[in-house]
Hints:
- The structure holds two protein chains of two kinds.
- Chain A is an alpha/beta fold.
- Helix content of chain A is 27%, strand content 18%.
- Chain A is globular, with a radius of gyration of 29 Å.
- Chain B is built from ten helices and one strand.
- Chain B is extended and about 95 Å long.
- Chains A and B meet through β1 and α33 of A and α5, β1 and α7 of B.
Amino acid sequence: MKRVLPITREDGPPQYWRGPEHLAQTPAAREAAGREFPEGASVLGPADRRTFLGLAAASAAMATLAGCIRRPEEKIVPYTKSPEGIIPGVPQFYATAYALQGEGHPLVVECHEGRPTKVEGNPEHPSARGGTLSWLQAAVLDLYDPDRAQGATKDKQPADQASVLAELEARLKAAEASGGAKLRVLSPRTASPSFARLKAAAQRRFPQAKFYEYEPAGDAEAVAGAELAFGRPLRPLVAYDRARVVVSADSDFLLTERGAVRANKLFAAGRRVRAPNDAMSRLYVAEPALTVTGMTADHRLRLPAGAVEDFLLALAAELGANNVALGPLAGKAKAAADLDRKWVAGAAKDLARQRGASVVVVGQRQPAHVHALGYAINQALGAFGRTLQFLPAAAARPLDDVKALAGEMGAGAVDTLLVLGGNPAYDAPADLDFARAMARVPFRLHLGTHLDETAAASTHTLPRAHDFEAWGDQAAADGSLVVQQPLIAPLFDGKSDLELLAVVAGAPERRGYDLVRATFKESLGGDAGATEAAPPAAGSPAPAGTADASPPAGSARPATAAAPAASGSAVRPAPGAPPPFFQATPASSLPSPGRIAPNPSASAANAAIGSAVAAAPHAPSAMPAASAVPTGAPPAGAAAGPPPATPGAPYGAVTTALTGFERAWRRLLHDGFVARGAAPVEAPLNADAVAGAVGKRAGQRPSAQALEVTFAPDATVFDGRFANNAWLQELPHPVTKITWDNAAWLSFKTAQELGVGSGDVVRLTVEGRSIEVPAWVVPGTADYSVQLFLGRGRAVSGRVGKGQGFDVTPLRTTKGFGFAQGGKLEKTANGYGLAVTQEHNTLEGRPIVREASLEAYRKDPEFAQKAVEHKPLVALWQEREYDGHKWGMVIDLTACTGCSTCVIACQAENNTPTVGKEQVTRQREMHWLRIDRYFSGTVEDPQVVRQPMACVHCENAPCENVCPVNATSHSPEGLNEMTYNRCIGTRYCANNCPYKVRRFNFLAFHEEVPETIKMVTNPNVSVRVRGVMEKCTYCVQRINQAKISAKRERRPLRDGDVVSACAQACPADAIAFGDLNDPQSRVARAAAARHGYRVLDELNTKPRTTYLSQIRNPNPELA
Amino acid sequence: MQIFPRWTNKLPALIAAGVGLGGAGAVFVVWYYFSPWHTDVGYEPKQPVAYSHKLHAGDLGMDCRYCHAGVEQSHWAPVPATQVCMNCHGQVKTDSPALELVRKSWAEDRPIEWVRIHKTPDFAYFNHGAHVNAGVGCSTCHGRVDQMVKVHQDQPLSMGWCLECHRNPLPHLRPPEEITNMAWQSRPPEVAASDPAINHNVNPPQHCTGCHR
């Protein structure tokens, strides 16, 4: 019997706990902590004796048969016509984009023989700089979703796509007479220039038609707030790196809000502490329920969403007291009695002290006038032009559009409705009863990725192409234009929004490629850009400079292809530009008016491309098109039809010969973006208008009888568009660690007063509408505020998402879209089992997370190493010297927000299976990388530490000593390697691992995977079978590939050649990976930081992963 | 009365000898017949097109990389597309019956399904590019393909065979320009060691994740 260690330590100052049971030290929690595998982990699933015997007999028979056959005959199926630039076995990388909340995320996607497998951020893009989010990482799985709409339907019956289109065209033709008076088009909010161009053309064709926009989560209120404050729609752009003090009023700017990747990069840059003298910004967060941003806060205030306006007014009042000139706002600013006066005053004083280097951010779900109030406060703080700028934006009418549309449809004023993407029948405000209103439209066509709720309410549907299947363009967070290049021909014959809109517009071009090209031709100025410097960006120095780099690349292409080529990875982010783990603050994060954001890494990366560009993966001619039938072999005839622009000539040669637009276009496709966006504008703030709009609904506070209900996109499935994505469904929520479900979050006090406990199903009623949802008591939730998450409980979805979780949209109305008041909550007799990984793999109260305030750190930078006292460590065996490479990782707990992007990146890179909810409850989840989340402090106002934990590659690894078959061993470079084909599944290693990072394949998780999903697997990593152990390998396939490439080029490995998937994906650059023996490497310098520590170093395991302690920057006045 | 006749006195010795011989025989059978030297070497399946490497690579002297282009970059030596065949056979032997399938493949845009001969297990990530660039020639693993009318497997491609070279690579290396030279003879160790074209810090992995991952 394993000794159960005390869960909490009496000597360490902060006590860390994972959940309420853990804190209360219930017997069950103590018992669970002492086990490596939970009760029942080894039990076979629900199979009776008969089934088991049948299976055993069948497998025995098959084993015999397989043993007799000398060797199964295998076929090699080459191409018939080689697609240009493809060398079978060498991945290609294309720059593309993925749109979320109307923001184009610049990406580089890895493609194996025309099969996209892995998403990375575009390292050359000035604002994203290679960062991604979990949704972007998981988007590639959606591409292969077998439940996607696979063809057109008419009246729920499969129909010919051409006939549906013909019917639409005929209808449009007929509508021309009336100017399209009864034609309506509804689309998600988008910043696509092509979309805008085609919309304008369609509007010209149908002057009476209306084009509406609706997005269930987005920054529409922020733009509308700017319209209120400035008289024109603008989009705020915050320079978090320049802000010394940030106050977030209900804003989750680090994850679920628009521009999160950029915010992460900049925010982390402003808080990167490596030496005691480094500066660190301070973050105040006031919010109703913990978010990723709230978990990062130095000071956090529990605040109902409805009290945010009062909070900002109180903040303004305190600012006034600190001699900040408020202007007309002074009359409205007043303290609210029930708010924590000390907290607000402390924040205000800090803001005022750092005038010009402080900023207030307002959450997307807050109404427009609260955003306007935020802008006014920022102006008073002198933030404009320093920490806050504004980009022009399209006018936003947050809910007016969808309201108007529902009204018109209900009144019979619409006879043709086109829904271009989105799923309004599921996510539109419930009081509009969108699906029923839709039913009154005779012709209603939905272009959707899935046959979802809206498809069910439509007469006609067309399959929508995935973003990786279609041409498009988007605007990135910083306003730069990004091009969305297809990586694969539509698997299910999908059409893009642009292509359908072109039909409506009657545009002469109908193909996505032509449409996007035409837009850029217009905006790049056509032949006007014929001069050398001008093409890409009208004076932008960066692209022009890099354009000059391409001729040698092209001309260097030898006929024999024998030149050393950099593994063909043209824009592989790894050799590109390692994120600035060490750089304190980038020189400029904000494009100043009239200046273009510099792109220093582009030319460097281009040089690294070398002659590999000869592979021309970025030329449109290399546009791959796999056959729709997935096969293991390269698809037959995978060559795309020759593109219109390049009749099969080599990239380099063409580029050198090209001039004007053609050259700029090629450059655009190669880079993936134009670093020229809309320049920031300066607009005068109309303070009177803001003052007039605020303070009308003061004093509203929730109570036990009238609860506040807040809505937020889920940190995993977002607004429901990823509901059928198993990676995201199984991703533990960053705060609660709940998988596969959502719950209603309550504070301890609320739960106690209402007599509810975690897991009880409650009935929540708002204005006569009610839902049933399990309650979950979450530390840090505001009292009488109930947090709900969108995106789950889908009635019509695929096999993964259908009925998974609870639908909260019935409570979401036009009046209470961001949050609603007056909710009632009753407990039902039912309970609901949630699969929560919160208590899995606990490390039994050992001091594995370490933290200090900035002040304490400055006094004693080595505090972390002193956290554990131990005798001198002596190894039992002779220790090894590592004189070659010495791979290691550094994880910065201060920068980590817990967003879980790395978890999905690891899953995508390493073919980690998903296991399903039932298996998660048995603790069989397979994530190699988990993010432990620890609370400390009081249950209601906790502090949070997040700790990404994967195999730490001990030099004296306890797992290696106990393996009876030597399946886990040590490499000369210090990797703790796992050899699957040797493993016999004793699980001794997992039992002996003090970090609990080994994962066992209890079942054949890869076997029942649909055929299309198999296409997402990384061919460079084994797919593990049942009965073998697996764990983090430090992405050994990337190490090997980089070494092979370097050898081919006869050069030593350089820092940045090897980047693990997690480090590459992290938007906050919290993870560094590389060679510890190279003193100049990013990882070695980070590992040398004095607040670094190695987890359980006292066991003399000598882990290779170093953690940098969490440093907090609390306001001494609020201590 | 004697129960056991006299000759039975020899039984223990005979049994011992029999067990010894039988055991040795069993070891030999397993050692020889179960090894890839027996099971895999010589594997010579029938290919859909009677392509002769002897004719093309041997008599005509074509470089291996004319067809297997990309072998320096890729983890595998790409099997040529039909297009590559048609580069020549669009003009040469345009009506040969042996090339019927090739022409059909070209006309119908359907790939030729060749039968795979050389194969490492799925969990062994062999990389052609790494070996070719290190100076391991084609013939080292594939034998005298230029003399094979029908290609067969020449070496066992087993892990022990791989490790033999990984432990002592020098005798198996050659200068990069000799990679496709089928008649290459390995240099004496001291010559190889002093030739920088051969001995250039080749350091093949011998740990598990060098090949298995």
